[in-house]
Design goal:
- The chain has eleven helices and 16 strands.
- The chain is of the alpha/beta class.
- It has one domain (72-326, 340-404): 4-Layer Sandwich (Purple Acid Phosphatase, chain A, domain 2).
- Strands 1, 2, 3, 4, 13, 14, 15 and 16 form an eight-stranded mixed sheet that branches.
- It has helices at 2-36, 81-90, 99-102, 106-111, 139-148, 164-175, 189-193, 233-246, 266-278, 372-376, 389-399; strands at 67-77, 114-119, 152-154, 181-183, 185-186, 196-200, 203-211, 226-227, 249-255, 282-286, 294-298, 304-308, 313-315, 325-335, 341-356, 360-366.
- Helix 8 (233-246) runs parallel beside helix 9 (266-278).
- The protein is globular, with a radius of gyration of 40 Å.
């Protein structure tokens, strides 16, 4: 038995050796294949990769842009007899054509996003036309103001009751047929409570109008008509604060001060500061018929408001040199993405009411377009012989801070 077992073991040895050699050969081939083959990425270890980091987080939405609105405000539209008779002649008996009267300022008004005017005279269809001291103008005047591009007309002024309460009511009825918003005079208390609003480019403006005087006239007892007066400070404060709640920008038209004086009174300055502190952003003054300063007012909340105490006459047929010089306030209103409001680059653009001798061809012209020849032939020289470009320049630069003026032409000397 031991001998047989030994023979069996001896017989198995060659087989085992063959198997071992086969295994070694297979391993060698496998190593060669592995060594020369491309590695499977899934079998490789993960290596860290440096990714450049942006200094600012990526955003799929662009940054919001500020909203920009350009507003132009002008002064007293004082329609004397010479002006409406001129409009009648130019219409050749077919109504009234005021095109020539405002032709030289059409572009200024049309180019503004919002344009405001103080309409000094009422328009009562039921009464004959009239001029100083109790004005009444044709409704074609209002039609043309709308055509020019005016958006707001202040009616609160010392001539608002020239045709009594019924004349004012008729005027308000007429304006309700127009797109122009009116301020300062209202049909009743409900109408008064509706603060006038205009929206442009995502910015909401509110407009408030008031007057200091009504030439000794008053509404009759029991009248539903409403006028806002500068002496009613509690009502003014409440109105401005309400307007501030429902709009981005509060614009006040105020008829105040002393006629034919270039400096505002202490009461003008006092009320202007109060209105600014209550929330008025822009205050457009009129009534003196001559220009008064433009100023920034520091507000209680840390902001600034802008006031022009008097824009002077936009047009008239008055008879003294200083009354021929008015202005348009041109200001850019910017609403920042956070809702804050800035008044940028305010400019006072002087305008000249020009007429030929005998009050012929009355029209209003921007001073930048006015010439020495026109000044020398102005009909006002019958009362003011010194009237010239230099005369205009001296008044403008004396009254208006250079901060608010573009270059003003002077009359050539020598």
């Amino acid at each position: 038995m031991p001998y047989q077992q030994h023979r069996k073991k001896a017989a198995l040895w060659p087989v085992a050796l063959i198997l071992l050699l086969a295994l070694l050969a297979g391993a060698a081939v496998g190593f060669a294949v592995w060594h020369n083959a491309e590695p499977d990425p899934a079998d490789l270890p993960v290596q860290p990769v440096d990714v450049p980091m942006s200094s600012e987080p990526e955003s799929s939405e662009p940054e919001p842009e500020p909203a920009v609105v350009r507003l132009v405000g002008v002064g007293d539209n004082l329609i004397h007899e010479a002006i409406y008779k001129q409009a009648s002649r130019r219409a050749e008996g077919q109504g009234y054509d005021f095109g020539f009267t405002y032709e030289a300022v059409e572009e200024l008004i049309a180019s503004a996003d919002i344009a405001s005017i103080n309409q000094e005279t009422v328009m009562d269809r039921n009464r004959p036309l009239s001029a100083y001291p109790c004005f009444n103008s044709p409704t074609e005047l209002g039609d043309h103001l709308e055509q020019l591009g005016f958006d707001v007309a202040n009616l609160a002024n010392n001539h608002v009751l020239d045709q009594n309460a019924s004349g004012l009511a008729s005027t308000l009825d007429y304006w309700q047929t127009k797109k122009i918003q009116t301020t300062g005079a209202y049909q009743d208390e409900a109408d008064y409570q509706q603060i006038r609003l205009l929206e442009r480019n995502g910015v909401t403006f509110s407009f408030i109008g008031m007057t200091e005087l009504t030439n000794g006239l008053s509404l009759p007892a029991g009248s539903e008509l409403v006028l806002l007066r500068t002496g009613e400070e509690d009502r003014i404060k409440a109105r401005i604060e309400k307007a501030k709640q429902i709009s981005d920008v509060v614009v006040v038209n105020v008829h105040w001060g002393v006629e034919y004086t270039h400096q505002p009174t202490a009461s003008q300055r006092d009320l202007a500061q109060k209105m600014a502190d209550w929330g008025a952003d822009l205050i457009l003054g009129h009534h003196p018929h001559v220009i008064q300063p433009v100023e920034w007012l520091d507000r209680a909340d840390g902001g600034r408001s802008l006031v022009v105490y008097s824009l002077g006459n936009f047009i008239s047929a008055q008879s003294e040199g200083p009354r021929m010089i008015g202005g348009a306030l041109d200001v850019t209103v910017v609403k920042q993405p956070d809702g804050s409001i800035l008044l940028e680059d305010p400019k006072f653009l002087p305008v000249v009411t020009h007429y030929d001798p005998g009050y012929a061809n009355v029209r209003t012209i921007l001073l930048r377009d006015y010439t020495a020849e026109l000044a020398q032939n102005h009909g006002v020289r019958a009362q003011t012989p010194a009237f010239s470009l230099e005369y205009i320049h001296n008044i403008v630069t004396t009254v208006i801070d250079p901060e608010f003026l573009d270059e003003v032409p002077q009359e050539p000397k020598g």
